[in-house]
Automatic annotation (TrEMBL):
Organism per entry: Ramphastos sulfuratus
Family annotation (PROSITE patterns): PHOSPHORYLASE (PS00102)
Protein's name according to its UniProt entry: Alpha-1,4 glucan phosphorylase
GO molecular function annotation: glycogen phosphorylase activity; pyridoxal phosphate binding
Entry function: Allosteric enzyme that catalyzes the rate-limiting step in glycogen catabolism, the phosphorolytic cleavage of glycogen to produce glucose-1-phosphate, and plays a central role in maintaining cellular and organismal glucose homeostasis.
Entry similarity comment: Belongs to the glycogen phosphorylase family.
Cellular component per GO, a single term: cytoplasm
Keyword list, A-Z: Allosteric enzyme, Carbohydrate metabolism, Glycogen metabolism, Glycosyltransferase, Phosphoprotein, Pyridoxal phosphate, Transferase
Length: 741
């Protein structure tokens, strides 16, 4: 009525880019599912003033710009100054008759901002609480800084920098003091908040002023999303022992029963190992508590395995040699009652390789919880055409129970349904093609196969292998222009961590190849290559529904789960991928014949490591690989700077941990099978339908039900709470239920 376009309005809203990749997006899907399942759950994090950087491509290179996402305000958040809490840093520990005291600390205030998280059509609204750092008003004014009032006020920035910016590394540990401050900041504020809420509830019964914490693990479950909040374990111990005066053993028992830990990566460079001297400076009491936890832990191991010094060294929370470091994953395992991986294959690797000593000790502690995605955002919201088409066939209930998608199997031979599914895909492609032409000034053929590889740029994700395939396709077109070629639009997108040189070179290489391919008249509309700038959630919502082929090609054993793979499957793309992460379970659900699976399995990778990976061997044996590599190395794609990509080529030959050449041949052959099927539109679409019908397992609702039952011990309820305008039975308000953070 106002003459405004809703879609235009939606475009104006900034993404809340408060995470790096899969980990942060998984948390968002989990919040949606917890609310939809009626769980009393809170999501805690940091309200970064600047989120993940905006990526600009200038002359083929990634350039970072600050993400000033709060510039125009954020209508969804509500500041809650009444719940502001103090967080302490630095200082020293005094040991007194009444116990340890952490004194002479610097205080930073944590100001919470609440964002509502509505469940799907069930009148439930949960809370995401993000902490912002504020300096206390007497900051730098109470002591030494008597004369310089102006400087003291300006120095407030030092405290408030804690929540200034998100560290932009995905799957990489950078041991910076500010990062450790951020990790402790969110943990200390959150635990105070949880304990305040526990004490206010009827469960925190006080006997002569002192709270009884016996029921704490029955009322509170805390899930550690990777090791980033691992300091919560010594912090809860500090609160129980130093402040609440519980005996150590009781405090430790309650702490272990409260925490559970989710592992999200097996890459060694991603594991958090904080230098002891940094922790001692910043959090002296916590270091003492960690040492105490470690001592008791090692005493226990020694009693079970006398004289096995090597085992003690492997299992210690403290790594000796060079600079002493705290292994945060070990701390999380020892301090939690449950540990899980995020896909079957990943959880196996966690148990049998990465943490095998711990799993041998307590096998019952280790579980699997395969990741999922919310079908509300990743189908209904981003692909209304497909969502409606599905609802016409099987009803609307599937939105809350995605397993009902199996009902689509009965329509796999229904000619009308096949045509409608293909039509929705084609409409999504036309719409996205128009977007690409507007943004990139490249003419896109909407009937070409949209071959999409979007995720963070990392060597293990092997965007380089995709790049070699592009060069190979290009060479085949040029060698035999008359030969039938199935037209493709290859779309690659993703951000590289600003300090990750190789990832930035990979972006430059893709853009250099794109420039040559897109401007060669011999190629024409057969092959187009686009590097998608500033890949983020809002852009994923556009590209995923338009995708024909989803690229999930990490080296087997390196991608813990992946969740983009699931989004593509649900939106009618076919997958080309390795047997890695959740791809394995996708193949299990849909049938391996309905995915394009290629390449080494985990066993093959281990075997190749044992005999030694020799890249040269593949280069010499495969003429098309040799040709492509020689072009890159010889400056064919960078004539003004022939040795521009020497670092990339050198890596591929001499230190490629992810074995791109070893899977190249199988990948190219598999891609030929993809092209062949794409020529038969009907057979392609039938395979698409089989995939959608098998995607039900990958709802985050299923994942959260498993966490709730196996780890948190709470029951999901699909009861619809009456809306606030209807009177409700006051007895219903008295249901006993714990909370999850």
């Amino acid at each position: 009525q106002l003459g405004l376009d809703m879609e235009e309005l939606e475009e104006i809203e900034e993404d809340a880019g408060l995470g790096n990749g899969g980990l942060g997006r998984l948390a968002a899907c989990f919040l949606d599912s917890m609310a939809t399942l009626g769980l009393a759950a809170y999501g805690y994090g940091i309200r970064y003033e600047y989120g993940i950087f905006n990526q600009k491509i200038r002359d083929g290179w990634q350039v970072e710009e600050a993400d000033d996402w709060l510039r125009h305000g954020n209508p969804w958040e509500k500041a809650r100054p009444e719940y502001m809490l103090p967080v302490h840093f630095y200082g020293r520990v005094e040991h007194t008759a009444t116990g340890a005291k952490w004194v002479d600390t610097q205080v930073v205030l944590a100001l919470p901002y609440d964002t509502p998280v509505p469940g799907y059509m069930n009148n439930t609204v949960n809370t995401m609480r993000l902490w912002s750092a504020r300096a206390p008003n007497d900051f730098n004014l109470r002591d030494f800084n008597v004369g310089d009032y102006i400087q003291a006020v300006l120095d407030r920035n030092l405290a408030e920098n804690i929540s200034r910016v998100l560290y932009p590394n995905d799957n990489f540990f950078e041991g910076k003091e500010l990062r450790l401050k951020q990790e402790y900041f969110v943990v200390a504020a959150t635990l105070q908040d949880i304990i305040r809420r526990f004490k206010a509830s009827k469960f925190g019964s006080t006997e002569s002023v002192r709270t009884v914490f016996d029921s704490f693990p029955d009322q509170v479950a805390i899930q550690l999303n990777d090791t980033h909040p691992a300091m919560a374990i010594p912090e809860l111990m500090r609160i129980f022992v130093d402040i609440e005066k519980l005996p150590w053993n009781k405090a430790w028992d309650i702490t272990k029963q409260t925490f559970a830990y989710t592992n999200h990566t097996v890459l060694p460079e991603a594991l958090e190992r904080w230098p002891v001297d940094l922790v001692e400076k910043l959090l002296p009491r916590h270091l003492q508590i960690i040492y105490e936890i470690n001592q008791k832990h090692l005493d226990h191991i020694a009693s079970l395995f006398p004289n096995d010094m090597e085992r003690l060294r492997r299992m210690s929370l403290i790594e000796e040699g060079g600079t002493k470091r705290i292994n945060m994953a070990h701390l999380c395992i020892v301090g939690s009652h449950a540990v899980n991986g995020v896909a079957k294959i990943h959880s196996e690797i966690v148990k049998t390789q990465v943490f095998e000593d711990f799993a041998a000790l307590e096998p019952e502690k280790f579980q699997n919880k395969t990741n999922g995605i919310t079908p509300r955002r990743w189908l209904l919201l981003c692909n209304p055409g497909l969502a409606e088409l599905i609802a016409e066939k099987i009803g609307e209930d599937y939105v809350r129970d995605l397993s009902q998608l199996t009902k689509l199997h009965q329509f796999v031979d229904d000619d009308l349904f096949i045509r409608e599914v293909a039509k929705v895909k084609q409409e999504n492609k036309v719409k996205f093609a128009l977007y690409l032409e507007k943004e990139y000034k490249v003419k896109i053929n909407p009937s070409s196969m949209f071959d999409v590889h979007v995720k963070r740029i990392h060597e293990y994700k092997r965007q380089l292998m995709n790049c070699l395939h592009i060069v190979t396709m290009y060479n085949r077109i040029r060698r035999d222009p008359a030969k039938l070629f199935v037209p493709r639009t290859v779309i690659i997108g993703g951000k590289a961590a600003p300090g990750y040189h190789m990832a930035k070179m990979i972006i430059k290489l893709i853009n250099a190849v794109a420039h040559v391919v897109n401007n060669d008249p011999a190629v024409g509309s057969k092959l187009k290559v686009i590097f998608l700038e500033n890949y983020r959630v809002s852009l994923a919502e556009k590209v995923i529904p338009a995708t024909d082929l989803s690229e999930q090609i990490s080296t087997a054993g390196t991608e813990a789960s992946g969740t983009g793979n699931m989004k593509f499957m649900l939106n009618g793309a076919l997958t080309i991928g390795t047997m890695d992460g959740a791809n394995v379970e996708m193949a299990e659900e849909a049938g391996e014949e309905n995915l394009f699976i290629f390449g080494m399995r985990v066993e093959d990778v281990i075997e190749l490591d044992r005999e030694g990976y020799d890249a040269q061997k593949y280069y010499e044996r495969l003429p098309e690989l040799k040709h492509a590599v020689d072009q890159i190395a010889g400056g064919f794609f960078s004539p003004e700077e022939p040795d521009l990509f020497k670092d990339v080529v050198n890596m591929l030959f001499h230190h490629d941990r992810f074995k791109v050449f070893a899977d190249y041949e199988a990948y190219v052959k598999c891609q030929e099978k993809v092209s062949e099927l794409y020529l038969n539109s009907k057979a392609w679409t039938k395979m698409v339908i089989r995939n959608i019908a098998a995607a039900g397992k990958f709802s985050s609702d299923r994942t959260i039900k498993e966490y709730a039952r196996d780890i948190w011990h709470v029951e999901p309820s699909d009861l619809k709470i009456p809306p606030p305008n209807e009177p409700r039975d006051s007895a219903e308000d008295k249901t006993l239920n714990g909370t999850v953070a």
